[in-house]
Amino acid sequence: MNPADPWRVPVIVAQIPDTGLHRAFEASEASRVAMAEIAGLREIMSASASFDLKLKSNGRVQVTGEVHGRIGQTCVVTLDPIENEINEVIDLTFAPPEQIRSLAALVDEAAQSEEEEVPDPPEPIVNGVIDLGRLAMDILFLAIDPYPRKPDAVFAAPAEIVDPAEHPFAALKSLKTGGAPAPTKKRPNSPPGDKDQ
After folding, report:
1. CB 130: neighbour CB atoms within 10 A?
2. Could you report how far apart the first and last alpha carbons of the chain are, in Å?
3. I need a surface site. Which of 22, 132, 140, 159 has the fewest CB within 10 A?
4. Residues 132-175: pLDDT tens digits?
5. Distance CA 139, CA 86 (A)
6. Distance CA 106, CA 100 (A)
């Protein structure tokens, strides 16, 4: 098993029958441990996928299905261990590499025309193979909450003790209450012609 690519379920496109292909599978314990390390998770208790593959025109393949998982994380507020369920539904199109650019351009045009439903960009068929395990792993990772928290967890900012003397209006308050020193009085000028004796 490649630690960088621990969940592999390759399907050769040329072997997909005209009636389509259904594949359902689960990740092994070794694959789950490796995936948890890659994703920075405490653990992955379960990971499974179910896909239907249908041949389309021009060598394209439509992949629909679901990815399910149960993952262990740490609450960002309480630091307690928590578990989260992942349930994702997908509908993707895989295409030969030479078609990716033109199909991606069509997706961009659809997005610019403000259509209600914009299709996802196509995924490439690599060397005539669609890796359903890698697809399931990517979908699982994208669904992970980066800031997990317990349902009842509330973040409370630490109380900050402020010195009243450092308050921006402390000087104003001292003037109002007479706390500021009185201004120094100037010595009156001597009348013209007077000289100090």
Report:
1. 24
2. 108
3. 159
4. 999 999 999 999 999 998 887 666 565 565 555 565 555 556 55
5. 10
6. 10
